[in-house]
Amino acid sequence: MTDLVVIFRTHSDIEAQIVRGLLEAHGVMSVMSSDVPHSIFPLSVDGLGDVRIAVHPGEAEEAVRIIAGHRTELKNGKVVRLRDEFEALQQAIGYRFRDRGLLEHAMTHTSRANEDASGGVADNESMEFLGDALLGFVIADMLFRDFPAFDEGEKSKTKAALVSTATLARQAERLRLGDHLLLGRGEEKTGGRRKQALLADGYEALLAAIYLDGGVEHARAVIVREFGGLIDDVRRGGVSKQDYKSTLQELLQSRELPLPEYRLVGTLGPDHRKRFEIEVVVRGERLASATGPSKKEAELEAARMALRELSHSDA
After folding, report:
1. pLDDT under 70 in the chain at which residues?
2. How far are the Cα atoms of 75, 171, 205, 231, 309 from residue 132, in angstroms, in the given order?
3. Half-sphere exposure at residue 253, Cβ-oriented, CA atoms within 13 angstroms
4. What string of H, E and C letters represents the secondary structure of 244-275?
5. What is the C-alpha separation between 194 and 70, in angstroms, rounded?
């Protein structure tokens, strides 16, 4: 049997799979191997997690050419990885990972891990668990410090609203986190990138990854930035996202204005990833508009934006 030739090495098993898929798309069959045993954590980046891709000697030159064609070389001679699909996400959260494998792990849904025959890809379920605990603690600490007048019931209700699946999914949508999820083919086809549960879980896993990469202070700083606007909303009188519509209605009534109308402006995207655009109107004047994965979610977000606009106009 002819010995295979190693033509690519990386510290990321996910990047190795991307390269392998690239080669197969060009008709070059390859074999992926690693000396690292399966673990619930991503492969190490300290040299112990070396993942190799090998091909038949007769296809080695072509494989190297294909890979080189998908790299980018900067003026300083540094070669950028084949697909830095998380760059926009790191910019959005204001945190850059030292161990990029942690970010890949956080974005890996169980459907992607289940489709990997090698068993070397771990899903983000354990990180979701950690992120949920981390987020709950930081939010509780923020509420304790910022709302000393709230009784236990008010704090609990507010915390539940802030860490709810709906709220976390909206936070994830704002970061366009769905675009970065690593999904299996089946989940991809059924619109997994827009499913609230997947977005919320991915968001929690992302926070856990930041904690594992940079420590609790970096994680706390990101959470404080991420939830600062929602905490401000609580200060303006709403403890739950579900209360935005009623809060807006009460505010308008206190000003002797008519009730708001919610109008469907249109829809965006294909049927399996449809988003609804809603505008909130008072006396024929549009106060705000927003989009969401459902009409209800879009209405709630439009109400929140309208409350924010009204508060700014009062300032």
Report:
1. 1-2, 13-14, 25, 35-49, 69-84, 117-120, 238-243, 311-315
2. 42, 14, 8, 18, 31
3. 7
4. HHHHHHHHHHHCCCCCCEEEEEEEECCHHHCE
5. 29
Q: What is the dihedral of CA 248, 252, 257, 260, to 10 degrees?
A: 0
Residues labelled as active-site residues:
132, 204
User: Tens of pLDDT along 155-174?
Assistant: 887 888 888 887 898 899 99
| Distance (Å, whole) CA 12 – CA 180 | 16
List the alpha helices (DSSP H) in the chain. 13-25, 57-68, 87-93, 100-106, 110-114, 125-146, 152-162, 165-174, 185-189, 196-214, 216-235, 244-254, 295-314
CA distance 259 to 41: 52
- Model pLDDT, residue 296: 85
Q: Which of 301, 179, 162, 131 is nearest to 235 (CA)?
A: 162
Helix (H) / strand (E) element for 278: namely strand 275-282
User: Quick check: pTM over 0.70?
Assistant: no
Q: What is the pLDDT of residue 72?
A: 53
Which residues 6+ apart lie within 8 Å of 119 measured at CB? 38
pLDDT computed for residue 159 by the predictor:
87
- CA 156 to mean position of chain CA atoms: 25
For residues 50-63, one letter each, b for 16 or more C-beta atoms within 10 angstroms of the residue's C-beta and e for the rest, the string is bbbbbbbeebbebb
Residue 190, number of CB atoms within 10 A of its CB: 13
Q: 3-class DSSP state for residue 12?
A: coil
- What pLDDT does 41 receive? 39
Whether 287 and 278 have beta carbons less than 8 Å apart is answered as no
Contact 16, 10 (CB under 8 A): yes
Q: Which residues have C-beta within 8 Å of that of residue 142, sequence separation ≥ 6?
A: 224, 227, 231
Q: Which of 277, 92, 126 is nearest to 204 (CA)?
A: 126
- In the block, tokens 């008519």 appear at 258
